[in-house]
Fold:
Amino acid sequence: MTLAARNLKHNWHPYTQHKTSRTPIAIARGEGALLWDEDGKEYIDAIASWWVNPFGHANRFIADAIYKQLTTLEHVLFGGFTHEPAVVLSEKLIEILPNNQQKLFYSDNGSTSVEIAIKVSMQYFFNQGIKKTKIIAFEDAFHGDTFGAMAASGISFFTEAFKDSLIEVVRIPVPTAGNEAKSIEALEKLAATNECAAFIFEPLVQGAAGMVMYAPEILDQLMAICKANEVFTIADEVMTGFGKTGRNFACDYLEQQPDMMCISKALTGGTIPMAITSFTQEIFDCFYDDDINKALFHGHTFTANPTGCAAALASLELLQSEEMQENLKRVHANHLVFEAKMKQHHKVKTTRVLGVILAIEIKTDSQESYYGSMRNLLYDFFIENGVILRPVGNIVYVLPPYVMTDQQLNKVYHVIENALEII
Ligand SMILES: *Cc1c(COP(=O)(O)O)cnc(C)c1O
Structure:
């Protein structure tokens, strides 16, 4: 029996309607931007395995760091203890995070990093006897699938069954070109109510919504409104972090600095699940008290796992290497050339590029749903042609590992062009 067949007996996959979806492919091996399935078929991983893998699969440099850590200290509890990998990683991250960020709280995945930011926002005010419990978020946002993160997410069919059990989240329009004024107006109204603890957003790019992009200038304005009204700003950089936008963080394009930041995907180069929520000193100080009840009673068993920290340290070193910075520029330049070509295509509605992120919106007559028929047709075509791309409705996006070669990138572009012929 193949692995793919055995898999179906016991494994329940994410975001999958098992009755109607195609059988998950069993991947046996990876190297760089390539993956091979159990039959030896080769795939180009053009979405970096859900945006986590900038430096290529089975990266030896990170693997060696992990091995060394595993054979020194694999794990120790972070309650009452600490260790060198966490101390050094925090020092290194503080150097590259916005310079108001001073305190790091470790967890395991993007959703928990968001959960922690939301809880801290609410408890900050609670600790002072102030009732501010609503959270502001963008329409079509994605912040994760645990309850708080899910509440902040705006992709409705993900959350429909739970809508009566969620914390209160109020939404403002995404300030894409032409919608800036609406967005600002909505935020001004909400911020003035004195009921909102925080505004959470994916800075500059809404990943799960289909790489929807908006300008840094307008985000600066929105953040300034929050500052003026004592509403915390939470930059969810789980997707955008670590070079994807062409800079270390999307926030590096801003004048304003967020009060909190969430990072996870790509933090460990796609090896070990880990996330961090970062905070200003002022936020930390509000929990610092003789009263134990003012502490943040939140934690996860694997918080600041040393092996994860070692993987993150190795990843940071790779990210900051000249070679990787060159790769970022090279992928971006390739995207621009292909984007210019796609702009001319009669089946293409819009295109956008930021850093290594490229999105192409295909013209349709109908409102394409997230997992609609065009999406499935495209997905199957890409897989048949050995390219892993997961279109969002009618939006095809490419977010490759930074190490993807020009030749591999060109194959991805070529398969996208061919896909436009079949729809
Ligand atoms: C993926 C993602 C999350 C959730 O991360 P998980 O590790 O899947 O829980 C949160 N926010 C953003 C912006 C994401 O892209």
User: Anything to note?
Assistant: The chain has a mean pLDDT of 96. Residues 3-58+323-420 form a domain with the Aspartate Aminotransferase, domain 1 fold (CATH 3.90.1150.10). The chain is about 40% helix and 15% strand.
